[in-house]
Amino acid sequence: xxQNERLEFQKNISVITHDLKSPLNSCRFFLGIVRNEMKxxxxxxxxxxxxxxxxxxxxxxxxxxxxxxxxxxxxxFLIESSNTKLIxxxxxxxxxxxxxxxxxxxxxGKDFPTLSVDKRHFQMLFKNIIKNAILYTDRTHANIxxxxxxxxxxxxxxxxxx
Length: 162
Known about the structure:
- A hairpin with a 2-residue loop joins strand 4 (143-149) and strand 5.
- 8% of the residues are buried.
- The chain contains 5 helices and 5 strands.
- Helix content is 62%, strand content 17%.
- It is flat.
- It has helices at 3-37, 42-72, 84-94, 96-102, 119-135; strands spanning 79-83, 105-108, 114-118, 143-149, 152-157.
- The chain is an alpha+beta fold.
- The protein folds into 2 domains: 3-72, Helix Hairpins (Orthogonal Bundle); 79-157, Heat Shock Protein 90 (2-Layer Sandwich), CATH 3.30.565.
């Protein structure tokens, strides 16, 4: 992709994500109406409304991810040797208020490597992954395990999935 095509692609992604967020917000508004107006079968109405809300949350998260991706192309990267365990520690410290509030359980593996990465983007990536795992769980408390094995990071959680 040449520079002009890349810029056009980024512009289109930005427009698409903005256009998709507007109907999602409307759906949330109408969801509130459905919850208030459906009195014939309140249990079913609440169940359907909860399912709709979970789907809207997933769609919003995906749209936000696309939006982040579109912005990454515009930024410059500072690649340097970085201790990924220290980056994860910083992410968990930043997310501590949310982790405490939701009583989420996050377990880090033992062997995290030193890699050549852009610390800021690496931290942003895993902050978004962990935050989404906490916010979009269908359980009382999120259980998240992050590990590094065979040259690969893995994140496992008890969330609703995509």
